[in-house]
Amino acid sequence: MISAVDLWARVGGVDALRGVTLTVEKGSLVFLVGRNGAGKTTFIRTVAGLVRPLRGRVLLDGDDITGVPPHVRASLGISVVHEGGRIFPELTVEENLRTASDSYGDALDLFPELRAMLDKRASELSGGQRKMLSIAMAVSRRPRVLLLDEPFEGLAFSLVSRMYPVLVQLAANGVALLFAESNVALLRKLTDDADIYVIERGTVVFRGSLAEALKSKELMRMLGYIA
Ligand SMILES: Nc1ncnc2c1ncn2[C@@H]1O[C@H](COP(=O)(O)OP(=O)(O)OP(=O)(O)O)[C@@H](O)[C@H]1O
Ligand SMILES: [Mg+2]
Question: CATH code for 26-51+68-195+211-222?
Answer without folding.
Answer: 3.40.50.300
